[in-house]
Amino acid sequence: MLTALTNATLYTGSEVIKGKAVVIDNEKIAGLVDSDGIGPGINVIDCNGLYIAPGLIDLQIAGGGGYLFSASPGEEALNAIAESIVKSGTTGFLVAVPTDTFDVYRDVIRIIKSNKHPAVLGLHLEGPYISQARRGAHNKDLIKQPGINEIKSLLEEAEGAIVLMTVAPEVCDPEVIRLLRENNVVVSAGHSNATYEEAIRGFEWGIQTVTHLFNGMSQLHHRDPGLPGAAFASDNVMAAIIADGIHVHFRMVALAKKFMKERLFLVSDAVEENLQGINNIHVRKKDRFTLPDGTLSGSVLSMMAAVKNCVEHASITTDEALRMASLYPARLLNLPDRGLIDKGYRADLIVFDKNFEIKSVYLKGKLSNK
Fold first, then answer.
1. What whole-number distance in Å separates Cα of residue 133 and Cα of residue 217?
2. Which of 191, 256, 291, 321 has the most CB atoms in a 10 Å sphere around its CB?
3. CB contact set of 245 (below 8 Å; sequence gap of 6+)
4. Distance of CA 16 to CAs 51, 200, 272, 322, Å?
């Protein structure tokens, strides 16, 4: 049966529309029709003056629902994370796994390959080929230099499960970047102490984006613009940013937006508390996660909260903030059916109120329990 969502303002990803209904046909959007022109036999859901936007897409989330995935790599953990994330309005996400052992990488690859949850897009390996100087919360003993044969073996085992990988450009060579790109891995510069010149060279080799801009990287300085300056100067490299006001000051979010425009997108970098083991320890604080020594290690942010922060604290319009959390990450991952409300697109939709509170979520056309 067709379903029509009516009486809502639509943030389609390309325009803001009133007086139209979104018609869902199974897993897809059948189109937009006039609200007073809905035919018989269609299930009509009155959204009571709320707002509808494409489902949000998070390219860096390490945990949720009581689980840190890298600490508990299993089907139960992944499904609990996915269900928790979907309820928050995120209908597509990459599972972020920080620098760890290759045994852990193989475990998470196996779980991701076998998981069929429609919100799981794959893996974001954040390491291990990163900078010791800018490792942040990553385990210094597990950071290593890239080896071509090692990477080939991992990619062969992954069979496409690794969608994005964060590397420090200054520790890589063109062959490493080329190998990842040839295997359809989006390559991101992060946890890097690269100079401006090293970063630009990495972009020329094929690095496509930057991991959590300003955090875990060389700083924007007048004598060396570093990795942030290189991202600003590029015409096509994108960058993710954590808009919680803790990882990055909201004025810096606004400044980055002015420089990068549609190349800047949002991530949550959300983790979950984990007090067991020797790696990936996260202590929950009121507004963040830290290592036991107080080092910032992750956020408590949801993607919808990041959208709200951009609107309320960074002078970004609602429609643009929503694109930063849906359309732009979809473009980076080359997901042709996500990020817009339009005919033929997957029916991943969020319904929310004026306070950016999620009221309902549709994942592949099905209403998710809130």
1. 9
2. 191
3. 309, 313
4. 10, 37, 35, 11
Q: Which segments of 130-249 does DSSP mark as H helices, in order?
A: 148-158, 174-182, 196-205, 226-233
Catalytic residue among 269, 287, 342, 348: 269
Q: Which domains are present in the chain?
A: 3-54+339-368 (2.30.40.10), 56-332 (3.20.20.140)
> What's the residue count for the chain?
370
pLDDT tens, the chain, 370 aa long: 799 999 999 999 999 999 999 999 999 999 999 988 787 889 999 999 999 999 999 999 999 998 888 888 899 999 999 999 999 999 999 999 999 999 999 999 999 999 989 999 999 999 999 999 999 888 899 999 999 999 999 999 999 999 999 999 999 999 999 999 999 999 999 999 999 999 999 999 999 999 999 999 999 999 999 999 999 999 999 999 999 999 999 999 999 999 999 999 999 998 887 777 667 778 888 888 888 888 887 888 999 999 999 999 999 999 999 999 999 999 999 999 999 999 999 999 999 999 999 999 999 999 986 5
34 is catalytic: no
Total-model pTM? 0.96
Would you call the peptide bond into 128 cis, given omega within 30 degrees of 0 as the criterion? yes
